[in-house]
Description:
Layout lengths: L2 H12 L3 E2 L10 H9 L7 E4 L5 H15 L9 E4 L5 H4 L2 E4 L6 H9 L4 E4 L5 E8 L2 E8 L11 H15 L2 H16 L3 H14 L6 H14 L4 H14 L4 H11 L17
Antiparallel strand pairs: 1-4, 2-7, 3-4, 3-5, 5-6, 6-7
Helix pairs in contact: 6-7, 6-8, 8-9, 9-10, 10-11
Amino acid sequence: MTTDREAAVRLLKRCGLEVTGEAAQGGPPVDAAIHAVNGFEVEPVAAIPATTPHAADELDEAWHHHAAQASLRAENGEFLILPPVPGGSEVSWIRVKDPVGKNLPSRVSAATGSPEFVAVSVDDRHLCAVSVEEFEYWVTVRAFDIRREKRDVPEPVSAARKLSRAIDGADSRQVNEAAREFVEKLTFATADETLAMLRDVLAEDWTALPPWDRNLAYRLACLQRPDDPRLLREAAADLLRSGPDWDMFAEDLKRRGGTRAGSRFPALALQKST
């Protein structure tokens, strides 16, 4: 194990977790899991005001309840967790058991100073996470669709995936053809189709689309919905991750959206694209 992983394992043990493997085999892409919690389209299944007298107890109860409802733990009690430490996304998933079986957010908070963490089931299907949102604690649940290829796929999604594959192949002719198709499909897509494309493709692989693709997609969606505050905040958050060249435009979108557009999970947050 690297020093970073050794430190992560020590911290997880301080949280009362039993580490059953150095790292999980598989696990959903870390970027996709963080986006599933950090995206501005996300709605929590539970929101606990941080100022209430028993907020920590309520958060503990809510997380364990929803983790059970989401079948987070395997039959042997194992699940995967991103170490809630700086650089935890680089360490990636670690397979653990929780012999204590209660108050996990409070135990994480006692070890790190914050109850935030991301956990998924060993079959990659279910996520249950805790985040801190200004004046609230959020519990977020996400079911990953592992049969995605069986669905009817909207044209912008197919075009985006084709472009991503062409970029990975580094064939300039194929990249040019795929880029033209992507721009054409995006130009005539509705805002709903554009957002479905972004959320589908970025949830699979946050790096699948380069910044210019994402910027164009969000700009066209915002032009169709100039008064949608949630969309404006989501577009601002994406620009901030792509910065710093576009930070000025991101700040304008944040003002128009009416609230901040910062990245949650500061300890796990991905670095801006370069």
